[in-house]
Structures are given as structure tokens and as C-alpha cells.
Amino acid sequence: MTRLAIIRHAQTEWNVERRIQGQHDSPLTPEGARAARGWAASLAGYGFSALYASPLGRAFRTAELVGQGLGLSPLAEPGLREQAFGEWTGLAVPELRLQGILEPQEALGWAFTPPGGEDRRAVLERAWASLMGIAARHAGQSVLVVTHEGVVRAVLYALMGRDYLPGEPKILAPRALHILRADRADGGCMRIEDWNLPL
What we know:
With 199 residues, this protein is of the alpha/beta class. It has a single domain, classed as Phosphoglycerate mutase-like (Rossmann fold).
């Protein structure tokens, strides 16, 4: 069994502007960088033996800043990158809502697929494979993972049995710690140990 502690990257410039980043990048804001440095203090007690991150700049930089306080250097894990948003990359969420093109996709739940992008099931499949791979490499250890909102939601929503529909109540804090237990000996099973822990 491996404990996987998952967090989302710190605030970026495009987060503030409410622009869709997908697999494109924007830098961390100064506030985001300060927050990431501060997270190490609340994470130190978990005794992490390794640190993994999405290779996208905002997640990897967050991991570097957190890792400095934990004495760990991040390892890139491609399957943890954010959902590809295709033609919507760089667009503002309010703009898409005004155009009336976001809601029909949101109503598809797990089949949500931006034009030219990937659907949420694909995000779940690659993220799940990556997390189980990390668990296999660090059996019996605790590992910190820095990734993206889309990945965090896909994994936790799948484990909670949610349909990923807009009518469901929002239950995940935007930047919090979520802890999973992964066991390859149990058929590649993951379970939620705790979630929405403050950073």
C-alpha cells in the first residue's frame, strides 16, 4: 500500500484572469509562489519519500517550491498533465458562457470534450495509470503529487462515484490536500483516506 497525497498547483496569472490553461502554461503569480513555499510547513509531517509533478510549468514550479522546504526534488510524470482543451485554450470562461457553448459540453459529464481536446475519461485513465505506477515504485511509502484541477477532480470524482455534472454540489476545495491509498495487490485499487485538508 502506498499513500498518495495530491495537491493542485499554486495560483497562476491565467487563473486570476479566468482563462483556460489546459496544457498551455502561464506563470505562477507572486502570491501563488509565496503560497507554494508556505505549503511545505503543513506538509512536512507526512514524511514524504518522493515528490512527483505534472511536467507542465505551473505544476512543476509549484513542486519545486514545495520541495525546497521538504528536501525533495520533483520528478516529472507526463500522465499527470492537465486535460487538453484544444480550441478553448487561452479563452476566458465567462466568454464561453456568454457564447452559450460551454453548458452543452458540461451537461455531458464524463464525456465533456472541448473542440480539438480530450474528454474527461481520457484524463482519468492516464492519471490513474500514472498514480498506480508511482504507487508501484514506492510501495509502503508516502508520496506527494502536484497536478491540476482537472486531474484532481477526475480521480476523486471517479472514486466518489460522481457523474461530473454541473448540477452536482461542489465538494472540492480549490487548493487543498487530498490523500489516497493505492494498493496494486488489491487489483490496482485506490481509496480516499481524506480530502479537502487545508494547506
